[in-house]
Design brief:
single chain; about 90 residues; 3 strands; alpha+beta; about 30% helix
Length: about 90
C-alpha cells in the first residue's frame, strides 16, 4: 500500500513541477572573440542596465535580443456591471 501511495505522489509531483526556463530579456551584451564568434549575455531588461556592463571593460556592445518575444498577454474576462437606476 505504501509503494502505491508513494508512486501516486511521485506521478502527481511530476505533473505539477515544471522545469525551469531560461530568462530571456530584451537586451543583450554582445562580446566578440575575434573572428571565431561572439558571446551573447541576454539578461538585461533595459538598455540602461546593459550599457554599464559593456563600458566596464568587457569590450562589447548592447544589442536588442533577437529571440525575445515579449511577455505573453493575459486575457482577462470582461466584467459587466449592471447599472442600477435610483428611484
Amino acid at each position: 500500500m505504501r509503494m502505491i501511495l508513494a508512486g501516486a505522489l511521485a506521478l502527481a509531483a511530476m505533473g505539477v513541477i515544471q522545469p525551469a526556463r531560461a530568462y530571456e530579456a530584451p537586451w543583450c551584451a554582445v562580446h566578440s572573440f575575434g573572428e571565431n564568434g561572439a558571446y551573447w549575455d541576454c539578461r538585461y531588461g533595459t538598455l540602461d542596465q546593459c550599457i554599464p556592463y559593456v563600458l566596464s571593460g568587457n569590450r562589447g556592445f548592447c544589442n536588442p535580443n533577437p529571440a525575445y518575444a515579449g511577455p505573453v498577454p493575459v486575457k482577462r474576462p470582461k466584467i459587466h456591471h449592471r447599472r442600477h437606476r435610483r428611484r
